[in-house]
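Example: NIPSNAP domain-containing protein.
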Amino acid sequence: MKSAAQQVMSKVYELRTYKIYPHYYKQFLGLTQEHLYLRTAHSKLLGYWTSELGGLNEVFHIWEYESLEQRGEVRTKLANDPRWISDYFSKILPMMSVQENSVCQLYPGTDLSFSKSKGSAYNLVTLRFKAHQSAWKKCFEDLLQELNNAGHLTACFDTIHGRINEVVLLVQHTSLSQGADLVQKLSSFTQGKCILN
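Written out as structure tokens, the predicted fold is:
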């Protein structure tokens, strides 16, 4: 039997980004709002966001699984779910120009921390580090500590399938302007010892 800590560490999170053709964006969101329950019947949705700044006409969503095996089982069930395919997936497929995903675990020592009190604006930040750079971990953990102390870090994901040496931060703010502070911190971070790819 797994301990609580082992169960948390075995969980995996799939981060999915869809880029939608601009002329389909409103229709895509309508179909998603109407039919997302067909997807959530199969696994746990942690969040579904639209992009306001940065990548326009994009949606980003995070799915939680108990293991990679459970994810495989869910994907097989979806591929064989006639309502999922006919009512939703076959309709949205031509609306997407790009689909991207990565499979992650929580970065060691971090946890999920969604809270309405933190606000409703989010920054999604992907950091890719040069593989040969051993100093990045200490620098990055200093940044994580600072975000945690400020109470804004919602999640930190470490990629296990996808691009290596990549972490994804999900940071929650009370406003978009508050998120500008994060940009300043990241700018200082990237100009220091921890040079990004």
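The radius of gyration is 18 Å.
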